[in-house]
Amino acid sequence: MAINIKNSEVDYLIQQLRQLTELEPTEIVQTALERQYQELRRQRRKAQLDQKLPLIQTAAQEKATDFDPDSLYDEKGLPTWWKSS
After folding, report:
1. Three-state SS for 73?
2. Which InterPro entries does the record cross-reference, listed alphabetically (predicted)?
3. 4-37 as b/e, with b when 16 or more CB fall inside 10 Å?
4. Are 35 and 28 in contact (CB under 8 A)?
5. Per-domain boundaries in the chain
């Protein structure tokens, strides 16, 4: 799909970027579009995570149990999963 830019400000910006970067107009537009696309995806992912985080935190708190570090070791100081012969 070809595009024809008929906006003098956009054309001016492309020319300025072309002088600074020595990129072709197509590359300049492509870079700008890729950056915008990635930024929008990042914002969407962040919004989704912001929405899910409270649910995850609540579920984690509900499932959390008190932990006794002494339960990891037996009376000999060996890990409780260790089976001595």
Report:
1. strand
2. VapB-like
3. eeeeeeeeeebeebeeeeeeeeeebbeeeeeeee
4. no
5. 8-56
Residues 53 and 13: their CA atoms lie apart, in Å, by 40
> For residue 67, what are its two tokens?
């932990």
CB 43 within 8 A of CB 51: no
Question: What is the CB neighbour count within 10 angstroms for residue 74?
Answer: 13
**pTM for this model (two decimals):** 0.62
Per-residue pLDDT of 20-79, as tens digits, reads: 999 999 999 999 999 999 999 999 999 999 999 999 999 998 888 877 888 888 888 888
73, β-bridge pairs: 79
Q: How far is CA 85 from the centre of its chain?
A: 50
